[in-house]
């Protein structure tokens, strides 16, 4: 049985919610759902079962130029993934220089290669094409015209061959969906306090462990040192495949480093490897050889369990699992099984006129937005001696704030001039410019627990859809926010405009979104922050007809269920009917 990926493939109660949301987060990649299908002379995508062994045919004598291109495209669907046979369709010069590992292009539907100029050129249009970069990071729809491919052709020994092919693996969407897996590469934040997952798509099966380590060794990418950093040595390289024994022990041999790093760095390095390798269901533990020397733990063991480094979890390992809400103006601890109890701090004993709350990771501090949306008050959850004080005043329409692992409080103020984003750190206040958010009509903003990402719901003009966008946050080594990068589109509407009602982090790289797609239909779905889409094999999202959904309550924790707050009560996602949460409890929330 496949073990779930910790960042995006999880078991436990939330898995029920994931199934109810029907985004199939176990080994299925997420790609766009629509597109025209050409029914003519075409390359027909294969429909082999995942993992099926398939060796395509090489060039055949007397093939036309169009057939050579057609069979070249088919040859890229070899299983396991390999491009040796596809290279045989290339002219000798291009075969020696072709680099299909540079990127991946996927398409939906069938292809129809068309020969031009007597066969000296063959044109192919990729319907609904999407792109992934060399690392496997989802890049979304290709730029205009990039899906129109032109293959110059030459004669070699009397046979047509491709003179120049795009440096890309070009494959059908459903083939890709069955043979690549959504995983994450784990790096650290600039302060080396928490792991930051970077989602990628990699070939599944026996190649997975090797590819995971190769991509991890390559690092987070140039220009990302203030977003995430790696503690694998820069000089290191993986020159041998990662072998995995029948008992689940993986051997990782890294070359190029002259000496073992210090103990602290070594621990961070092993945490990166453990979190990355645990996504391969065949691996239970691993050994590392670095610069010719075996790496050992403090107890002398050279076998590192994949559970190593739990304290660096991007979900924050020490986070509280408590569920909070407001009832009759008081902060309450909510237990669907045991009832509702006011907390012992000031917010649980006196009414401060709060409409929204956010509780820090440890469950010790609560930030509350006042009913007029002008002030955020900070107080203790259970400490009845901690005084309540304002940390932000003079707002116009403050939204529900959110906390990250470092105790930074992120706040959205929806002003008449547009959105303002403010970060509260201790007693310091700083406004942060967020491209595409600042000055726009924004309804919601949430920070990820690791602090590396912001997601925001940007309101569309009348008659158009809202947009959910994800941004990366850049820090210096002292944890000060340097900048926020431009956003990536995560979710928007199709033919029917949608309105985003609420969003919340459900996994370190996935958000739960409640949206209204018409006057009488509300839906709840999961959306990966890289902008990839659900597979066409997945079931529809959870849908509510004439039942307004006001809020989603989720957390990136294996053991915590997801709730939806509707007009008729609070529902446990995946279970019909209401829960035992009293209907007068509002602003239900986990920590974060």
TrEMBL record:
Record keywords:
Lipoprotein
Instruction: Kindly give the PROSITE patterns that the UniProt entry links to this protein.
Output: PROKAR_LIPOPROTEIN
The protein in question is named MtrAB system accessory lipoprotein LpqB
Domain (GerMN) ranges: 209-299
User: Where is region (Disordered) located?
Assistant: 41-62
Q: Does the keyword Hydrolase apply?
A: no
């Amino acid at each position: 049985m496949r073990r779930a990926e910790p960042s995006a493939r999880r078991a436990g109660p939330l898995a029920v919610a994931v199934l109810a949301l029907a985004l199939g987060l176990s080994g299925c990649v997420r790609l766009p759902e629509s597109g025209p299908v050409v029914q003519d002379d075409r390359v027909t995508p294969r429909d082999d079962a995942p993992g099926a062994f398939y060796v395509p045919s090489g060039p055949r004598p007397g093939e036309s130029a169009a057939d050579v291109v057609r069979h070249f495209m088919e040859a890229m669907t070899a299983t396991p993934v390999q491009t040796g046979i596809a290279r045989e369709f290339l002219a000798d010069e291009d075969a020696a220089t072709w680099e299909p590992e540079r990127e991946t292009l996927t398409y939906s539907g069938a292809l129809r290669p068309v020969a031009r100029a007597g066969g000296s050129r063959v044109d192919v249009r990729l319907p609904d094409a999407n792109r992934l970069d060399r690392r496997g990071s989802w890049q979304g729809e290709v730029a205009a015209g990039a899906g129109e491919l032109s293959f110059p052709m030459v004669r070699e020994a009397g046979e047509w061959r491709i003179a120049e092919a795009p440096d890309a693996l070009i494959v059908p969407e459903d083939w890709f969906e069955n043979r690549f897996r959504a995983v994450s590469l784990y790096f650290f934040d600039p302060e080396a306090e928490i792991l930051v997952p970077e989602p990628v798509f990699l070939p599944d099966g026996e190649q997975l462990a090797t590819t995971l380590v190769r991509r991890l060794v390559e690092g987070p990418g140039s220009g990302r040192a203030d977003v995430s950093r790696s503690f694998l040595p820069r000089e290191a390289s993986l020159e041998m495949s990662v072998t995995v024994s029948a008992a689940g022990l993986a051997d990782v041999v890294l070359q190029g480093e002259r000496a073992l790093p210090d103990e602290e760095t070594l621990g961070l390095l092993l945490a990166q490897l453990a979190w990355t390798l645990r996504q391969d269901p065949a691996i239970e533990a691993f050994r590392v050889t670095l610069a010719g020397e075996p790496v050992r733990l403090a107890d002398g063991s050279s076998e590192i369990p994949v559970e190593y480094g739990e304290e660096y979890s991007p979900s924050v390992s020490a986070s509280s699992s408590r569920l909070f809400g407001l009832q009759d103006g008081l902060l309450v601890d909510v237990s669907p099984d045991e009832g509702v109890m006011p907390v012992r701090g000031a917010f649980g004993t006196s009414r401060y006129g709060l409409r929204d709350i956010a509780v820090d990771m440890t469950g010790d501090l609560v930030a509350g937005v006042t009913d007029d949306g002008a002030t955020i008050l900070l107080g203790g959850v259970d400490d009845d001696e901690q005084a309540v004080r304002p940390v932000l005043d003079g707002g116009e329409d403050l939204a529900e704030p959110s906390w990250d692992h470092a105790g930074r409080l992120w706040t959205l103020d929806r002003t008449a001039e547009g959105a303002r984003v403010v970060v509260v750190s201790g007693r310091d206040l700083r406004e942060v410019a967020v491209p595409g958010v600042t000055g726009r009509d924004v309804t919601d903003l949430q920070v990820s627990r690791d602090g590396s990402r912001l997601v925001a719901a940007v309101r569309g003009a009348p008659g158009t859809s809202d947009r959910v966008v994800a941004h990366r946050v850049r820090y210096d080594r002292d944890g000060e926010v340097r900048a926020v990068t431009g956003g990536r589109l995560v979710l928007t509407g199709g033919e029917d405009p949608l309105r985003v009602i609420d969003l919340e982090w459900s996994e370190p790289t996935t958000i739960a979104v409640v949206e209204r797609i018409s006057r009488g239909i509300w839906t709840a779905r999961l959306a990966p922050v890289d902008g990839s889409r659900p597979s066409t094999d997945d079931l529809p999202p959870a849908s509510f007809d004439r039942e307004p959904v006001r809020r989603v309550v989720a957390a990136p924790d294996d053991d915590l269920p997801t709730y939806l707050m509707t007009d008729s009560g609070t529902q446990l996602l995946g279970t019909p009917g209401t829960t035992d949460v009293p209907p007068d409890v509002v602003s239900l929330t986990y920590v974060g």
